[in-house]
TrEMBL record, chain A:
PANTHER family: NUCLEOPORIN NUP43. SUPFAM superfamilies: WD40 repeat-like. InterPro entries: WD40/YVTN_repeat-like_dom_sf, WD40_repeat_CS, WD40_repeat_dom_sf, WD40_rpt. It comes from Panthera leo (Lion). Transmembrane segments: none annotated. WD repeats lie at residues 213-255, 257-299. It comes from the Eukaryota. This is Nucleoporin 43. The keyword Transmembrane helix does not apply. It is found in: Nucleus. The keyword Signal does not apply.
TrEMBL record, chain B:
Functions as a component of the nuclear pore complex (NPC). It is found in: Nucleus, Nuclear pore complex. InterPro entries: Nucleoporin_Nup85 (IPR011502). Belongs to the nucleoporin Nup85 family. Keywords: Membrane, mRNA transport, Nuclear pore complex, Nucleus, Protein transport, Translocation, Transport. Pfam families: Nucleopor_Nup85. This is Nuclear pore complex protein Nup85. The keyword DNA damage does not apply. Component of the nuclear pore complex (NPC). Its main location: nucleus.
Length: 380, 665
């Protein structure tokens, strides 16, 4: 992890996302989007790490990311997702959900669609609506699902002006994040430590399944699904713990891994190499978790500065009936063997790392210290 | 009180005529509020319309630009690293560390300066271009001062190396020469370039003798007449004794060699070796440290401190730190020559040459428009153990005072710019600065942190984390309470309950629980089951919350047809006095269907208990004969009671029979 580039950008970064590469293409990631928060004016920005024609001969700009274009965003950017190659969906603290369109010809961004009051509170006894922050968004062309502090779930379609489906009072507490399980099912996490599965085919506002952390009701802040094994889900909590869940069985996490010292803001499986997982936290750290069974010999060198994981609880009930080759390395972990190697990716601890994204060999993350870090050699 | 050093500057408030109206003000953190009062100096003159505005006056507004945010963020990391430098580190390694930290700070300033410079070039309108340029000159002055302080106070260079450092300092800050050098060398015939001699002179003035020699050889190549002279002067340049870092020679040796060399130069001048070339002769004079010859090059020297360093180089190369101020003062006087008076920057540098750290910091505080510079420099010097003795007559020591000012400024950043006031984006940096102020940092943080607007829960969580890490329980409670109140206002009872549980706020949990129960009575069903069903140990926070949780449990038992469990839970809710009195009617009514079940659920014992509860309730009710709706309500209640009495009596009978027959068999 020798080459990690930092750039100070004069705004606190709340979200970073790679632009997806076209399916089947051999290109590596070269464009990413960021959203800012807590500034006087917030922006959604697009950056490029691609080489420019006129790179300094002495390598002055080699590897550093350059701003392509940006656009003002009303309110904090709470979440950001690429809808497709050109469109970015942004969730705002004003409850608004905006689709931005990127015009590559003249490098500009414009608003292509907006749902202004996607999330709102209704005061007691009064019809007046006050906006509620939209905390999470997830896209699966053509669908967009948003969740918010109002406990509401919205299902939008890119070509519809109104929400296709709204579940009011889906949650009594704040919904922090959402992801697709398998269409048309989604997964949400909330501030009382629950993981809920919703099926849009079902009417009513009841989830089809609730899984929860026992006891302390520690809020969950992020969720990601294993890219190949859709029943394997990872969540991160307020206490910095990483939980691995098998949504097919049980209502409790399969394993709880002690991780960061403060809120885990994001967790991501590597999309094409899912034995690798990445987490970032309020405590200013960014970790790479490697659960691949064939840890190469060089690992002792590679993992310098890392630490081994501690298993707190483990409760796989009955795995015998699952075919051996199908067992995910995340579920089959034997508590007696510390097989997960953890590496810290940032050179020194900073303020909160709010967001990260991985694509191929590239990783990008953004911090409250107003810096964006990029590396292009994750597995070097 | 210390007396004022200079007259304070006057700031005019637009729209307020201070001759006619009086103004009032109030101090805030890093800023002040000013408005017109309705008090008049004379009794009746308020026909003049007043100024309707309240003004926020801030001293350091100019400095909060986008680019400077990078300075704040990057230097924050350096600052935190510095505070963690092991105290045990002593001697050389500690000094090396501190010098490295100082260099890091300077490189951040330089990076900012460069970006600001680019911005100035790229600026579209001249006004903003000027603004950027003025920022560049401020930053450049900062770096200049910092660098000198680094040499004198942190590096503490002794005689000999001191001059080498000062030379580097001048070379770094008078850097136009490099572009000139490239320009001249790039031309077809360098020695015929119009600035050729200027360039050679500057190189000599800066002590870059190797480069100067190369330039002279170019001149020698094209003009055979002066080739000999150039060679001689070149030899003089080559043989000038200098202290090189790796060399082991003593200062005395160096001084001796230098004396010889100096005499040789002098001899050449007296012999008139360079008489036919005024350029070369003046170079030779410079190398002799001739003051008049140096002052002739005022234009090329730019400023008095360059003059000072060149003068030292060619006349006192082994100057001791203690003698610096003497040469500095005379250089300043000679250079200005009574034509102009020293600027603030001159005074600051002079104070540094006098090794008067406090004067440096004081002058900087007055001259610079923000606290960044003095706060960080003072902190660094404090780590060098240079400020121990100095205590202020107010607050804490100087380091802490300046850090507090700076950190408060970070918290105030952007705040007043809008009425919605949801922007103060540098506050997270300020927290760490407060942490390292042992005396007043904590109190300041407590006061500031409560004033951060909590626009989203995520932001609130970040603030909470800061408070929890520092065991600021009072602030944690207050933040949670704010969020709980907000949630109640938004009709988000589940959220409100979560926040009051997090704050361990029993009173508020009771209030929210009551809202839940009231909603239940009105609607006949519970909302937010996902929360209430999963309260766990948090249920114990308040009696009402326990009741809410248990009452819901009763409904669950009932729904699952676990009637016996439901019955005993219901009874215990009343007998243990957890259930509020006003809710007993509801609970007893809930018992009705259980009493009417086919099988007997309540035992005789339990039935007696229920009857006692019912009679307690009935006897406690005031008997009033009021007309209207209330009367109707009372009738309904009475009917309910009668029904209950009947059901209880029937259940008692069945229970007696059942228990009797069971025992009998």
């Amino acid at each position: 992890m020798e080459e990690i580039y930092a750039k100070f950008v004069s705004q606190k970064i709340s979200k970073t996302r790679w632009r997806p590469v076209p399916p089947g293409s051999l290109q590596t990631a070269e464009t990413f989007a960021t959203g800012s928060w807590d500034n006087e004016e917030n922006y959604v920005s697009l950056w490029s790490i691609g080489d420019f024609g006129n790179v300094d001969s002495d390598g002055g700009f080699e590897g550093e990311h350059q701003l392509l274009c940006d656009i003002k965003h009303h309110g904090d950017v709470m979440d950001l997702q690429f809808f497709d190659q050109e469109r970015i969906v942004a969730a705002s603290s004003t409850g608004c959900v905006t689709v931005f369109l990127h015009h590559p010809n003249n490098q500009t961004l414009s608003v292509s669609q907006q749902w202004t009051t996607a999330h709102y509170h209704t005061g007691p006894g009064s019809p007046s609506r006050s906006s509620a922050p939209c905390t999470g968004v997830v896209c699966d062309n053509p669908e967009i699902v948003t969740v918010g502090e109002d406990g509401r779930i919205n299902l939008f379609r890119a070509d519809h002006k109104e929400a296709v489906r709204t579940i009011d009072n889906a949650d009594s507490s704040t919904l922090h994040a959402v992801t697709f399980l398998r269409t048309p099912e989604i997964l949400t996490v909330n501030s009382i430590g629950q993981l809920k599965i919703w099926d849009f085919r079902k009417q009513g506002n009841e989830p089809s399944q609730i899984l929860s952390l026992t006891g302390d009701r520690v809020p969950l802040h992020c969720v990601d699904r294993h890219p190949n094994q859709q029943h394997v889900v990872a969540t991160g909590g307020q206490d910095g713990m990483l939980s691995i869940w098998d949504v097919r069985q049980g209502t409790m996490p399969v394993s709880l891994l002690k991780a960061h010292e403060a809120e885990m803001w994001e967790v991501h499986f590597h999309p094409s190499n899912p034995d690798h997982l990445f987490t970032c936290s309020e405590d200013g750290s960014l970790w790479h978790w490697d659960a691949s069974t064939d840890v190469p010999e060089k690992s002792s060198l590679f993992n310098q500065g890392g630490r081994s994981s501690t298993f707190l609880s483990h409760s796989i009930s009955n795995q015998a009936n699952v075919h051996q080759s199908l067992i995910s390395s995340w579920l089959s972990t034997d508590p007696a063997k510390d097989r997960i190697e953890i590496t810290s990716l940032l050179p020194s601890r900073t303020l909160s790392v709010n967001s990260l994204d991985v694509l191929g060999p590239c990783l990008v993350c953004g911090t409250d210290a107003e810096a964006i870090y990029v590396t292009r050699q994750l597995f070097s | 009180m210390e007396e004022l050093d200079s007259e304070p500057t006057v700031t005019l408030i637009p729209g307020v005529n201070s001759k006619k109206k009086q103004m009032c003000f109030d101090w805030g953190p890093g800023e002040m509020l000013v408005c017109e009062t309705s008090f008049n100096k004379k009794e009746k003159s308020e026909t003049v319309p007043g100024c309707p505005f309240i003004y926020i006056i801030r001293k350091d507004i100019d400095v909060y630009s986008q680019i400077l945010r990078k300075l704040f963020n990057e230097s924050h990391g350096i600052f935190v690293g510095l505070q963690r430098i092991e105290e045990e580190l002593t001697g050389k390694s500690r000094k090396a560390q501190l010098v490295r930290v100082s260099k890091n700070y300077r490189s951040v300033i330089r990076a900012c300066m460069e970006e600001m410079h680019q911005a100035a070039i790229a600026a579209k309108d001249p006004a903003s271009g000027r603004q950027f340029s003025s920022q560049v000159s401020i930053l450049s002055a900062m770096e200049l001062i910092w660098n000198l302080c680094e040499i004198l106070f942190i590096e503490v260079a002794p005689a000999g190396p001191l001059l080498l450092h000062l030379l580097d300092w001048v070379r770094l800050h008078v850097c136009e020469v490099d572009s000139l050098l490239a320009d001249v060398l790039g031309s077809e015939n360098p020695s015929k370039h119009e600035s050729f001699w200027n360039l050679v002179t500057i190189l000599v003035l800066q002590g870059r003798l190797d480069e100067a020699r190369q330039m002279l050889s170019k001149e020698a190549d094209v003009s055979p007449t002066s080739a000999g002279m150039c060679r001689i002067l070149g030899d003089l340049m080559r043989t000038m004794p200098v202290l090189s870092p790796g060399n082991t020679q003593t200062l005395t040796e160096l001084e001796l060699k230098w004396q010889h060399w100096h005499e040789e130069c002098e001899r050449h001048l007296q012999d008139g070796t360079f008489a036919s070339s005024p350029h070369l002769e003046s170079l030779c004079k410079i190398m002799l440290g001739d003051e008049a010859a140096l002052l002739e090059q005022k234009e090329l020297l730019n400023n008095w401190y360059h003059f000072l360093v060149t003068r030292l180089l060619y006349s006192h190369p082994t100057v001791k730190p203690i003698d610096l101020h003497f040469y500095a003062q005379s250089s300043l006087d000679l250079f200005l020559g009574g034509e102009s008076s020293p600027e603030p920057l001159d005074n600051i540098l002079m104070a540094a040459f006098e090794f008067d750290i406090h004067q440096v910091i004081k002058e900087c505080s007055i001259a610079l428009s923000n606290w960044w510079f003095v706060a960080h420099l003072t902190d660094l010097l404090d780590h060098c153990k240079l400020l121990q003795s100095h205590n202020l007559y107010f607050g804490s020591n100087m380091r802490e005072f300046l850090l507090l000012e700076y950190a408060s400024g970070l918290f105030a950043h952007h705040r007043p710019s809008r009425l919605s006031s949801d922007c103060c984006s540098l506050w997270q940096l300020g927290v760490d600065y407060f942490d390292y102020c042992p005396e007043l940092g904590r109190v300041s943080l407590e006061l500031h942190i409560e004033r951060i607007p909590l626009s989203t829960e995520q932001k609130a969580l970040k603030v909470l984390r800061i408070c929890e890490q520092r065991q600021m329980t009072e602030q944690v409670r207050s933040i949670c309470k704010i969020l709980a109140m907000k949630a109640v206002r938004n009709n988000r009872l589940g959220s409100a309950l979560s926040w009051s549980i997090r704050a361990k706020d029993a009173a508020f949990a009771t209030l929210v629980s009551d809202r839940f129960l009231r909603d239940y009575c009105e609607r006949g069903c519970f909302s937010d089951l996902d929360l209430i069903d999963n309260l766990g140990p948090a249920m114990m926070l308040s009696d009402r919350l326990t009741f809410l949780g248990k009452y819901r449990e009763f409904h669950r038992f009932y729904g699952e047809k676990r009637f016996c469990d439901a019955a005993s839970l219901l009874l215990s809710l009343m007998t243990s006095q957890i259930a509020p009195r006003c809710f007993w009617v509801t609970l007893l009514t809930d018992a009705l269907p259980l009493l009417e079940q086919k099988q007997v659920i309540f035992t005789t014992e339990q039935t007696y208990e229920l009857m006692r509860c019912l009679e307690d309730l009935a006897s406690g009710r005031p008997v009033r004969g009021e007309p209207g709706a209330q009367r109707l309500q009372e009738d309904i209640e009475n009917t309910k009671l009668e029904m209950l009495r009947l059901a209880l009596a029937r259940n008692l009978a069945r229970a007696i029979i059942k228990e009797g027959s069971l025992e009998g068999s």
